[in-house]
Amino acid sequence: MATIEETAGIEETGPQPSRLRRFIAHPLVLLPLGVVVVTLGAVLPGILFNLLHTDKSSVLRAFGGLVVGLGGLLAYFAFRRWVERVPHEPRRPARTARELGAGILSGFALFSLATGVVAVLGGFAVLGVRGIGDLWLWLGIAFSSGMVEEALFRGVIQRQLEAMFGTWTALAATSVFFGVAHLMNPGATYFAAFAIACEAGILLGAAYLVTRRLWVPIGLHMAWNFTQGWVFSIPVSGSKPPLGLLETRLSGPEWLTGGAFGLEASAVALVVASVAGFSLLYYVHRRGEFMPPRWKR
Fold first, then answer.
1. What is the pLDDT at residue 87?
2. What are the pLDDT digits (tens) for 145-154?
3. Which residues contact 19 (CB under 8 A, 6 or more apart)?
4. Which of 54, 185, 187, 257 could cross-link 250 (Cys pair, CB 3.0–4.6 Å)?
5. Residue 290 contacts residue 208 (beta carbons within 8 Å)
């Protein structure tokens, strides 16, 4: 687990760092630098891959999403190592696999639970089984969104804000950023942005705090989007109705179904994800691992 010094990207051993090094190591400088590095790491391979003009039914769409996701993730790890100079952690493939698997199972279970509750309340119905549908497209979306967005929002933004302002402020600010970013999506409403802020900001932020590694939130984020888009064929953040495994129908009031934005803007999904998120926060807080603001340390 990273110490406060590692989280802030500052090394205390060895020769006294130069003035430039101290400036770069400040969390409010590392934050925009990290955003730029991760964004470039994801965008550049994405531009090259888009030149292929692959069909959405092609397995290459999944491969392209994986390349974009890994590009952003590798850029993040390179930034930690060479810009922040965080000491290198030993490779633990088994631990990484466990955390990623736990996140994937949690994402699938949480969204399935929310969908099941909406179905019981009469807002969701399964009409039949479509088959493979746009499987490769949604795998690609899951890979790219899960890896890149978690590297950005949890790995860079939340971590650097926490190093400067403490855990509570970092969680609140990251949640607001994530919700506001989705206001530009088709079908977005202020409630949808609020729901996304809680579901993604609190739940994924808390999932990161449990291990202070990215694998649990990456798995959770990927599985949430994939389950929503491909398994249940429900619009994801205002997207067009997907062609997924199941042929389904949402009907009823917007507070129940999320309307055009999708089920993640439903009050049911908001409650399910928020309860899970605050449960994780309670667990982390009980362990005494919330970080105070920089000036109180």
1. 85
2. 999 999 999 9
3. none
4. 257
5. no
